[in-house]
Input
Amino acid sequence: MKWTRIGVAVLAAGLFQAAHAQTDYPGKPIRMVLGFPPGGISDVLARAIGAKMYSAMGQQVLVDNRAGAGTTIASDIVAKAPADGYTLFMQDITTHAINASLYRKLPYDSIRDFTPVALVATTPLMLLVHPSLPARSLKELIALAKSKPGQIVYASSGNGTILHLSMERLKSMAGIDMVHVPYKGSAPAVQALLGGEVAVSFSTMPPALPNVKAGKLRALGVTTARRVAAAPAVPTINEAGLKDYEMVLYSGVIGPAGLPRDIVGKLNAELAKIVNSADFRQTLSTLGADPVTATPEQFATHLRSDIEKLGAIVRAVGAHVD
Output
């Protein structure tokens, strides 16, 4: 009986310490991993959210850019991290919805090995061309590509990323052939376009908008169903000539599998406050992005749905990575 009481006391103390630790979360800096280099939408969002989380929760959020291998390096880091709330992932449509079908074999399961926390934003992509290219509309680009099959070179943020898949879908729908050159992120792809290394690229909004406004690049369309307030003169791809073309980039925060429910709940509540704040919404507006909030359960449903939807597009264009 004496040992039983001691055992119960030890167990109770352990449970109290665990509960106390979770109540006090976060008690140290949080690492926010992302699969892209600085300059793209994921990086901008991670840093903006991190600054807000620091103000609200009293701990720094350290952004850790782990670009490469189509975001699978970053995903694997998070999948194998301790489920304590101190390693989070700013994921997007590439990291889970596309990669689950694009890669024949991944070192993790895109659903089983992660805990959805919160959606934060959706954003369009922008179709860009170098000013030297004699195409001032999507129709002119398609006509030019048809007259020069396999001669126009386009950039993407990496094999299998949303920028790559968006262009492959455009090529398939338009019946054109262009040569793909992958870079390690949207910002490097735009730099290659600015330097004339390539002639065409889809881009996330942060590296695209300043260069379009400065006249350094020409925008031919956006991938969402409606025009973007930050660039109202730019038509949608649908309006520009490819009916039913739509690709929406979403961003959200997830953690490793097994993240405690109270930590998930606390993070979801704080992220909802951030997304609904006036200054954060203004930041999103300048990026052409829309704020999104969802419960962890709604986010989980969204992830599963997008894996099926984007998987169908991956298979349709024949994209795969060994």
In short: Residues 2-23 form the longest helix (22 residues). The mean pLDDT is 90. Residues 2-123+248-317 form a domain with the D-Maltodextrin-Binding Protein; domain 2 fold (CATH 3.40.190.150). The CA atoms of residues 282 and 291 lie 10 Å apart.
